[in-house]
Amino acid sequence: MPAPIEEYAVIGDCRTTALLDAGGSIDWYCPPRFDAASVFGALLGDADQGRWLLRPEDPDATAVRRYEEDTFTLVTTWTSEAGEVEVTDLMPIGGGRHDARSDVIRRVRGIRGAVTMRQELRVRFGYAATLPWMRQRTTATGPTLLAIAGPDALVLRGPRLTAKGHAHVGTFDVAEGETVDLRLTWFPSHLEPPEPVDVDEVIASTNGWWREWAGRSTSFGAYDDAVRRSLLVLRLLTHEDTGGIVAAATTSLPEEFGGSRNWDYRYVWLRDASLTLQALMVHGLDHEAEAWRGWLERAVAGDPADVQIMYGVAGERRLPEWEVGTLPGFDGAGPVRVGNAASDQFQADVFGEVLMALDAVRHAEAVDDDGLSWPLQRALLEEAERNLDRPDSGLWEMRGPERHFTHSRVMLWAAFDRAVCAVEHDGRYGPVEHWRALRDGLAERIERTGYDTELGSYVQSEGTREPDAALLQLAQVGYLAPDDPRMLGTVAHLERTLMRNGLLRRYRTESDTDGVEGDENAFLACSFWLVEQYARSGRLDDAEHLMQRLLGYANDLGLLAEQVDPVSGRQAGNTPQAFSHLALVRAADAIAARRRRMP
Known about the structure:
There is one protein chain. By secondary structure, this protein is of the alpha+beta class. Helices cover 32% and strands 21% of the residues. It has helices at residues 125-128, 199-215, 224-236, 270-282, 287-299, 349-362, 373-386, 406-426, 432-449, 473-476, 485-497, 524-536, 540-551, 578-597, and strands spanning 9-12, 17-20, 25-29, 51-56, 62-67, 74-80, 83-90, 102-122, 133-139, 142-149, 152-157, 162-164, 167-175, 179-188, 268-269, 310-311, 322-323, 337-338, 451-452, 457-458, 499-500, 503-504, 522-523, 563-564, 571-572. The strands form six sheets. Strands 1, 2, 3, 4, 5, 6, 7, 8, 9, 10, 11, 12, 13 and 14 form a 14-stranded antiparallel sheet that branches. Helix 12 runs antiparallel to helix 13, helix 12 (524-536) runs parallel beside helix 14 and helix 13 (540-551) runs antiparallel to helix 14 (578-597).
């Protein structure tokens, strides 16, 4: 069975990722792109769905792991009675790499004694639907194992393996001072196997690439280690060539253990990408802003009425959702889904998030005006105006009936607010009086239909009294001040209704508003939003206490999934999750800002 979600490490090359459990097994790998079919899929099944295991043969060997500072180079130190070895796992990045190959490097270095290492390779192309043909060869550089099926091929260079059923297994010894390199490369099957990489060279260049990028970030002085790792996660999930920012590295990790709330997050949500971009820019990482703006302009080109809430990594529009029968699911939680039917939903809030992100890009000193951004914004504003009265599926992508969500109306308000500011403060041209009237009309409607005076709180949607953690964003976007009595009343209502064991849920699943069976765990981003709200409204002690608790749910490498069970501490949902990490960054920044204001 797969390891608990919180035990997984991630390595990647900003084109795709691989997930490794604490026992040395790569259980998820989808080359050459985040949303490609899996080659190793044990994460959503077991070893028969594909994996690559590398660990000491001694079953009692213990491991301690870490990332090399400011990188995704994973270093695991294994200790057994026979000795000690260090395994370095990474995916090379930089150096003009492209989607015609994807590499995973595993280096074993002997530290003490002599340790026998065990290796098991199970290649399963196409989400475990296809067993490849396997062929052993001996070349000038050593043993080579080639796997081919359909459009995919893998070549593994390293110690010789022996076929055993539908696996290839083997052992090798590593003594003190010795180094053994294993190099796995995916490539299109119609091409010849690529030349092997120089392991010393790619370790140095990959670590240098990550550290150069991280070195450009600025620190605000609160929870710096967690913020830095979170910024690195956000960069890892940003495609190096297209600039698209995916929501997570995985599909179908369950929000409820054993349940069916399993979705594919390996795509670019306009909302998530916009918020990620803002988090990066606040910390001085402006280069991604230009790349993302280019991605956005390409993705939404055409009729503004055709704008979607999400796209593929390169801007693809068709993301049909289907169930993968060859993957049984994480710990039996099915179905496994590829694609996402929410791509066909209308979610009005995305207009606000995108316009706010483009507003931030406009004010970034390091990003030049390309002449296309403002016409795009005006086109999006026209489309937003055409949909002011249209119900939608909301931030949480409800699969029940569409509603007039309060959060969506506020984000539409934010879109027109940023348009007014662009004219009044940035010298852009547009019908500012008309936009101001639309903005003010939205505010009047929000106060009339989205605020319940008896509850003293904003509500999820018009005609209901349901709570919604998305309402914490009202102060974030400037709709009202964090210490406004209406905001404080909303916070109190959320604490009463959505707090479970000290953490926030998104909404009440028992209210049957989302059209999906089952429950879910606490949504980490919502609790980080609460930290931000506490800090900005003066409740610094509460903010710091909750922040410390949330950071305690991160794994030993600082990674967070989408959700967490507050009682057991188990992470749930797809991982690593951009939404969780960007909300962590915002929460830390809010605490740092409040501390600076303290006497």
